[in-house]
Amino acid sequence: xxxxxxxxxxxxxxxxxxxxxxxxxxxSFSIFxxxxxxxxxxxxxxxxxxxxxxxxxxxxxxxxxxxxISRDISKKMLYLQMSSLKPEDTAVYYCNAxxxxxLANYWGQGTQVTVSS
Length: 117
Description:
Elements: E1 3-7, E2 10-13, E3 18-25, E4 32-39, E5 46-51, E6 57-59, E7 67-72, E8 77-82, E9 91-99, E10 105-107, E11 111-116
Parallel strand pairs: 2-11
Antiparallel strand pairs: 1-3, 3-8, 4-5, 4-9, 5-6, 7-8, 9-10, 9-11
C-alpha cells in the first residue's frame, strides 16, 4: 500500500522559511518522479518542484531561487525547503509520486502553508 504523508506546514511571516517533508512508503524512488504541488483557494493545483529518479530537478518559475527540493532515498523522504516566502505562496502543499514507467500516480493528504504579510 502506497502512503505519502506530508508534514512541516504552518504559518510563517513573509520573508521567512519552512521545510516540508514527505514520508513515502510502498514505492521505490528509483522508478518514481517525486514532486511537490500546491493549490491555493480558487486556483488549480500546480507543480512547485519535482525530482526524477535520476536526480533531475524542475521548478516552477515562481519559486526558482527560493525553493529547493531534495530527497533521502534510504529513508524514503522528500523535502521542500522554502525560503523568502511570499503571501502568494500560501496554499495547501501536496506530495506526489508519479511512476516513470507506469501510470501510477499517488498523492499525499496535503499540508497547509500560510504566509502572512
